[in-house]
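FAQ: What does the model actually see?

It sees only this:
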Amino acid sequence: MITRSANQSLLVVGSVAFDDIDGPYGKQEDLLGGSASFFATAASYYTKNVAITAVVGDDFPDEHLDTLSDSGVDVSGIERASGKTFRWAGKYADDLATRETLDTQLGVFADFRPKLHDGHRQADLVCLGNIDPVLQLDVLEQCGAPKLVAADTMNFWIEGKRTELTRTLERVDTLLLNDEEARLLAEEHNLVRAARKILRMGPHSVVIKRGDAGALLVYGGGIFAAPAMPLEDVRDPTGAGDSFAGGFMGYLAYAGNTEPETIRTAMITGSVMASFSVEQFSLAGLHGLTQKMIQERFDAFADLTRFETLTL
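And it is asked to produce this:
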């Protein structure tokens, strides 16, 4: 049974935002969202020392900050600026397999320049959300000597700031991105070959998130595939990838090492947290989890891949 670790500190730099979602369950507005929100909440089940660096506007309610704080997340690095909070609006297809972005309002996030608090500069593990790669590199310049740096990115930066992104990747240990982004970054359709090409850009490992197909880990020593949990009730996939990343990094903070076997277990832990996330809107699926619930879901993932060795 996992007990939250106080040994390894974890910092995530990313977005705290509002989400407006439309889909088969109707319209949901002003939901607490953003990559850092999902990441930190998922990670908080494994480490007592998870902190967010982000920015919100003066329209952001204190109750949302309380929600994060109540999960054990250090919100002291969330800056409040004059203006509107970053807002994303999207519409999901009836099968929730695809979505369309209806509106993106960057608000104060457009001028976000992360400034780390002194207490966050020495974080053991750092996760760089999918912000401008120039800002990602600037964050690393403010850090001490993290034991592991993970980063996310997106099509916008791959297409618009490839040179800057390439410089950042030279400083990254683990890159987390989805299958479309991996193909675009590597300019290679086959995901294994794409991951191998990305490894040559600097990262020691690449985690490719594939939605309901699970996730793929490629590193120097081999390949590992984590399944996605078949669920009867999926309501909101919006934060699945970020919840996966939070569970993944949170477990590494809990374990205190980055050995290959630990990273493989972290992949399953990430899938566990993503499976909880999609069952409810916003962060609701990640709230109120118990050690027993997490362990049972983890064991269910193990059962998905358990089989007898074939002897011919």
